[in-house]
Amino acid sequence: MTYCLGLYCREGIVLLSDSRSNAGMDNIAVHRKMHVFEAPGDRVICLLSSGNLSLTHTVLELIEEDIQAGKAAHDTRHLMNQPSLFETARYVGSKIREVDKLDRAYLEKDDFRFNIHFLVAGQIGTLPHQIYYIYPQGNIMHADTDSPFLQIGESKYGKPILDRGFTSEMSLRDAVKFGALSMDSTMKSNLSVGPPIDILCYEKDALRVCHQIRLEEGNDYLKTIRQRWSAGLAELAKTMPELEFPVAGE
Amino acid sequence: MTYCLGLYCREGIVLLSDSRSNAGMDNIAVHRKMHVFEAPGDRVICLLSSGNLSLTHTVLELIEEDIQAGKAAHDTRHLMNQPSLFETARYVGSKIREVDKLDRAYLEKDDFRFNIHFLVAGQIGTLPHQIYYIYPQGNIMHADTDSPFLQIGESKYGKPILDRGFTSEMSLRDAVKFGALSMDSTMKSNLSVGPPIDILCYEKDALRVCHQIRLEEGNDYLKTIRQRWSAGLAELAKTMPELEFPVAGE
Q: Residue B91 in contact with residue B77, Cβ under 8 Å?
């Protein structure tokens, strides 16, 4: 399973992804799901992926092929020369559609779903920063201040904490905390989501990646928030008022 | 959608169910999903149901038919004359298998899944109290002190809070709080789960229902825990330590 999360803030963007991949419980591996492309001063593009690993890998290979082709022929359309983040997201969608043509029919013959989702986040030049959600059909949507987070993969366990407290107005430092708690909740309830955890915190208008970290299994920060959040939640639950039942019968 | 929850405690059992039913977002109704059968001094049996409403209704009608038949003929096997809760759960499973024979093929012709789950909870005489989970295939499993809660329906949003803090050792009063918070988290993140909320709190060896309540939409207790839990969580999240990113480049 996979959990990737994009938090849209007025001050920038926070992105998180786990790295566990499994084909059955007896086949578990580590695969990076966050891919950062940077042209400092011009643009930062970050891709997060979930779904069938062969599909996401093929999309990433096709994207890389185009980037390499672009070095030889300047009119080649590729990930890093689109005029806007919207066009960049549409470009990633077009690569998903290429893989659809390559592989979907063969997968479906053996009852595998064409399961692939991407988040495309970042900023280009003086345009606003943004996060896009790319569907398996290649169509897209984006975050906004009313719906300031986007999730792909195992999204449900990590949603309640975001629904309760995350807003696009909060500082990037606080958004990182909410993202880490959402990730921790997902790892706690679904063992097929796990470390290393990649976290990127992008300050708007930086046009370069300044804050990025990979937290390995057993990392102190992960352990600390796991312990403090669990203890705090259990304590908080007990401070809730008692439910008064009506007196029965008689 | 539906959310039903059974909490197994050493002191007894806490059960919760929502009452919202929908066939598409434009067809929403209220249906009770908690059904209590009581023979004071002898046994308390509570059924919680999720899935296709026509299937769960048919199971409940068949169960009621058997109870009525039992009044005429004492050797009729029915819900309230089984020697143990295990046999009671197996009996409910046998009713699901009857409905399978009646309806499954017709549903599947139109691509409806045979979707039906039950929880069967309670106590009979001097036997231990217990909660059983009944699958659509009619087979069963039960809760225990290692896995002290069972959920049916929309289970993921309400699981994190239980994973963090609920144990079978806690008092029934605290278990009610955890159950209410789990229900509230589910309602917050999935609008197709909603009030009235039925809550039953069974003290072991009571062999009668003493604590049962229905909380309607807008109920003060529901509003209070929604507000205090949301505020408390947001506050708690901000007390988490800040993540220190490594200093970039140079």
A: yes
